[in-house]
Structures are given as structure tokens and as C-alpha cells.
Amino acid sequence: MRSRKLQAVTLLFLMSGFLLSNAFAQNGDSKPLSDLPRQFAATAFGQAGSLAGKSFGVTVFITAWTSDQQVKDYIATLQQGGPDALVKAMEKIDDVGRLSPTGYVGNGFRFARFKKTANGGLHIVMVTDRPMSFGEVYRGGRSTDYQFGIAVLDVDQNGKGTGKLAPVCKIKFNKKNELEIENYGQKPFRLANIYLQK
């Protein structure tokens, strides 16, 4: 399994604080794109293996942004205690939104951050501790080391864009103290046709 480093912009985004009050982008309804709650719809496309070419609808609902202090706390927890400690920390935090495939309740996520982009849109990163079934935990296979789900949205000033969804991945700091993401078994889903619903 190859480790995939976050793109530089995403890495810096996760590891440094952004003043939310300064990140305003105007969308089609003249309301700041960063105002909450916000709901986006998208189509997810599989890119490898048995899921290649298959697609399904996804709804992303964001109710709160993670604070600068919480970002610092998460980073410190991951550095000092590793992924297990980060999962425990996230379990104590209320959901800040939800990602739901069409027809399913979906999962809440515990981390949501954004930064303004050059085109007046937003780069949004969402992370959650991944729920695992009793059977998965009982079997104790390799998948239990991949404890997080990550979604990234890149939308323009009208709330339209693309993104990625990695539902099963590992987040860790390597020996060089660099943040890495490793996907389990498959490439992330490609998110296309993203648009702002409300």
C-alpha cells in the first residue's frame, strides 16, 4: 500500500489556522459561501477495482466550522498519541455535519475547515473517525488500522466544483514529522457535479 502525501495546499490547510472571519466568498444567492448551514450535492465516481465507473449521489451538509484551537488540539493529539488518540478525541466532539450517499443516512463528520481560493470559492476539508461494524472489529483485519474518512470539496463562488472522497484511510505523521494519508485498498472516489443546494 502506497502512502499518499496530502497536496501541499491541503497539508498547510490542516496544519495551520485560518481566520474564518476573513474567508468570505460570494455565491449566486449573494450570501457568503462560508455561512452555515450549507448543503452540497455531488456525484461520486469509483476510480479503481470493482467500483471503477460506478457512481452514486452524495449529499454533504455542513453545520459548523472547526475552530483554530481545535485544529491545534487535533494536531497535538495525533503527534503525541497517534491515530488511536485522535479517534478518541474526535469521539468526544459533536458532529459538524454529515455526508450521506443517496438513500442512506450516512455518517457525521467531526472536522470541517475551509479557506478562500483565488476564484472566490472555497477549499473545504472534512474528516471523521470512521464507524466500524462489530464484525470488522472482531476480525481485527488490516482495515481496522484505517480509522478515518476524508472528503475534500473545491467549489467556485457559485458553489459548483469537484472533489474527492476517501472513506477508508489512515492519517499519521511519518518519521520526518510529515503528515501522510494512506488509502485502504482503492483510490478515493472522484466527486463531480458538486453544486450548492442551500
Word description of this protein:
- This protein has one domain (4-17, 34-196).
- Strands 1, 2, 3, 4, 5, 6, 7, 8, 9, 10 and 11 form an 11-stranded antiparallel β-sheet that branches.
- It is α+β, with helices and mostly antiparallel strands and 198 residues long.
- The chain is globular, with a radius of gyration of 16 Å.
- 19% of the residues lie in helices and 37% in strands.
- Strand 6 (111-116) and strand 7 (122-129) form a beta hairpin.
Q: Could you name the key traits of this structure?
A:
3 helices, alpha+beta, single chain, 198 residues
Quick recap of the structure?
With 198 residues, this protein is α+β, with helices and mostly antiparallel strands. The chain is built from three helices and eleven strands. Strands 1, 2, 3, 4, 5, 6, 7, 8, 9, 10 and 11 form an eleven-stranded antiparallel beta sheet that branches.
